[in-house]
Amino acid sequence: MDKDNIKFTIKELLDVINEEKFYDLIKISDIDKYVKKFTAYKFFQLMIVAQINQMESLTRISQKLKNTEEMQKNFLINEISTSQLSRKQRILTPEMFERIFHYLVRVILARTKKQAIIRNIGKLYVIDSSTMSMCLSQYPWASFRKTKAGVRLHLRVVVTKNEIIPDKAILLPAKHADRTQMDELVEIEPDAIYLFDRGYVDYKKFDHYCLKNLRFITRLKKNAEIEVLNQQAPDPEKLIFKDAEVYLGNHVNGTKMQHSLRLIETKDQDGKTVTIVTNCFDLTAKEIADLYRYRWKIEIFFKWMKQHLKIKTFYGKSENAVYNQIWIALITYCLQVLMKLKYHYEGSLLNVQRCLVDCLFKGLNAFIKSLFRKPKRTSKGRRPNDWDRQFNFIVQQFEEGEVSHLDDLTYDPLFI
């Protein structure tokens, strides 16, 4: 095949956000006015590559472009200085990358097969936030505490049996509490269930959700005031130690809820008691307890992002630079999920990223071959001894009179 006709992996990765689609989404007509070669789209492409490879600095990105002929051919640009990268990162607005992220989310959800985790629910949403800590002297605009700065990513994800899909994100300085973003992240949607932790406990909002028939499951704070209306029999075999209908709050401080909730006590994997409240009265207590365990999926997502993308340290110190980097990290995650879905790959997303690192500027066939390569090792690994089988074999020998070998000092009955 002619080398010029080979489809490169980087082109396939960015096919869903090609140059035409990029400019159509950002809706800024004069963004490249007076720009000769380093356009906003080329910056976007370079930052995607930097995220996949977890490049440590803008200087490293500049060096990588200068030393990699394949990058130069794909991006039609020979070199870019560190200062040009820094300037572009500072002047481009985060809103444009936010639009691209939400577009990719819609594409992923359209391509994802609907698989209900349990009966009677549509989507399962999980809401939480994660803070990226920073030095206060270098990032004064993100002041968080007296000696600390930080940015908080408020996130809603859709959880399926196979994927964790970021659905909606809000980036703010870390001083904004989780509860302040509930109106943005919790939307009225029939048949959906929202999972969130104690940072989102708000009795007035719970009453509003009950009024709108919006279903939720959350943990209850230890100091909550509870009025028990009635109780169901516990089921310790299923780790259900309490199942009651309750009112939360009290009249004195005006927190008393108008709607009753369901309170369930179960245990986590460490044996600690977990108190759950929900307005789902149509599900069994075990189903609710099992659903709440899916809340950890968002923790897995945050951990994956911080370990395998570049969001713990930043290329620039301005607000735009930091937010742009985080949005592009989320976009990179979405692009990798789309590659996994497109080729119906059932392995881990980390392996998709590793294959991208190795084959990003090679032909697409090289990436597909790497992705589906079968391991050469066929051994099942070290297997445990079947002590019961060996003991029964010795007993059988004894019963049949085959005992002469037991007088041999070189015989070890553990290795037959």
Q: Would you write up a description of this structure?
A:
- The chain folds into two domains: 3-92 and 343-371, no CATH class; 96-302, Alpha-Beta Complex (Transposase Inhibitor Protein From Tn5, Chain A, domain 1).
- Helix content is 39%, strand content 17%.
- The chain is built from 15 helices and ten strands.
- It has helices spanning 9-13, 19-26, 40-53, 58-67, 69-75, 82-91, 94-111, 182-185, 203-211, 285-292, 296-308, 319-342, 349-359, 364-371, 387-399; strands spanning 124-134, 143-145, 148-159, 164-173, 193-196, 215-219, 226-232, 242-248, 261-267, 273-278.
- A hairpin with a 5-residue loop joins strand 9 (261-267) and strand 10 (273-278).
- The chain is globular and about 75 Å long.
- The N and C termini lie far apart (59 Å).
Radius of gyration: 28 Å
Distance between the termini: 59 Å
CATH architecture of the largest domain: Alpha-Beta Complex
| Tally of individual domains | 2
Shape estimate:
globular
CATH topology of the largest domain: Transposase Inhibitor Protein From Tn5, Chain A, domain 1
On the 0 to 100 scale, the average pLDDT is 87
- Class derived from helix and strand content: alpha+beta
Provide keyphrases for this structure.
Transposase Inhibitor Protein From Tn5, Chain A, domain 1; 2 domains; 15 helices; globular
Can you describe this structure in just a few lines?
This protein is an alpha+beta fold. It contains 15 helices and ten strands. The protein starts with 8 loop residues before the first helix and ends in a 17-residue tail after the last helix.
